[in-house]
Amino acid sequence: MAGWDLKYGPIKEFYINDDRIWSLFNYVFSDSCRKRNTYKYGLIKSLLDSLFSGKKTGMGIFYTYEELFARFTENYWNLVIKYDLRQMRPDGNSRLSKIETILKRAATSNGILSTLEFSAIDKIERNKIVQLVTADCKKYVVGALYADFDGYIYAFDLNAEGLTLSYCFYEFMLKYKAELERLNYYSWAKFLEKVNQDNLVVRVIEKLELATPRRSDLSVYREILRKEFEENTCFYCGRKLKDNVHVDHFIPWSFVKDDKLWNFVLSCPTCNERKNNRVPSKEYLLQINNRNKILQKSHDIVILSDFESYTDGLLDSMWEYAKRSGIKEFNW
């Protein structure tokens, strides 16, 4: 049975070494791995972007299809609707993949949608699009990627709510997150160059990176930290905060690719700008870990939602992995 036609698959082996995992990723990124479209790159990106939001189980880290393919849909919305980049090799029947057809049909059903960021679309309409994309991806990409990794990467059942990433792969993807992102972008860009006109693929790597949107409005987090928890001093320098308060990603967004309250601190503009894309020195880990213990006692629905996948030691691991990935430490 072909990989794309699989309905379920167990984790073949739970303990494999880094060399074996590298060989599997290198195969998937290579031209030897059959790819009619870019879906496999898109699912790898969704897994990398979701690493810190999964739930630990006895078998590995569980991610819902809804979460993975909501990210997948948002990424493709930008690539297909915003940048008009085709994602499939022409097969003589169609120039567009099913995902492109779903997104373009949604965008043309209402002229306004094509001008909007995906997150700005009405929630009901957005959910309809995600459901259509999820159904197609479950049918054609989950089993295909599983087979390409020889059954080692995750366990899945298309009749269940999600898939379970092997602990070995989870640790590996954390350890080499930056390298895997770069390899995935590069391989994806090579594929796009073959199926698009030259004038459409200028700065294609940049377009792939920009396909993961940053949340622009972080005011709700600022208000929670200032009003509910009375955080009125800069997390870094300790000076009293005035009107221009920055919400800073403790571990830089470039590594996390997510917006969660447990990774946010309030900062004065000077400290935030000086910190830039760096991790704070290790002494601040104790400070934010203690702060998060206080936040976890809240009954606020926003806080509970953001802390759903948070565990003790998570930020310590992220700090170590971010530095291994080349993000430098900043000392005040």
Brief account:
The protein is of the alpha+beta class. Helices cover 49% and strands 9% of the residues.
Describe the structure.
The protein is of the alpha+beta class. The protein folds into two domains: 208 residues, no CATH class; 112 residues, no CATH class. It contains 15 helices and nine strands. A hairpin with a 3-residue loop joins strand 2 and strand 3. Helix 3 packs across helix 4, helix 3 crosses helix 5 and helix 8 crosses helix 9. The longest helix is centred in the middle third of the chain and has 19 residues. The model has no long low-confidence stretch (mean pLDDT 89). This is HNH endonuclease. GO terms for molecular function: endonuclease activity. Keywords: Endonuclease, Hydrolase, Nuclease.
SSE map:
Elements (H helix, E strand, L loop, with lengths): L7 E2 L8 H12 L9 H11 L5 E2 L3 E5 H18 L15 H12 L13 H18 L1 H7 L5 E4 L4 E5 H9 L1 H19 L8 H7 L8 H10 L17 E4 L3 H4 L7 E4 L1 H7 L3 E2 L2 H13 L5 H6 L7 H11 L4 E2 L2
Parallel strand pairs: 8-9
Antiparallel strand pairs: 1-4, 2-3, 3-5, 4-5, 6-7
Helix pairs in contact: 2-3, 2-8, 3-4, 3-5, 4-5, 8-9
Quick tags:
332 residues; alpha+beta; two-stranded antiparallel ribbon; 9 strands; 9% strand
Number of domains: 2
The arrangement of helices and strands along the chain is: EHHEEHHHHEEHHHHEHEHEHHHE
Multimerization state: single chain
Write down the overall mean pLDDT. Answer: 89
Q: What percent of residues adopt helix (DSSP H or I)?
A: 40-55%
Q: Which spans have pLDDT < 50 for at least 5 consecutive residues?
A: none
Alpha plus pi helix count: 15
Measured between the Cα atoms of the first and last residue, the distance is 58 Å
Sheet with the most strands: spatial strand order: 1-4-5-3-2
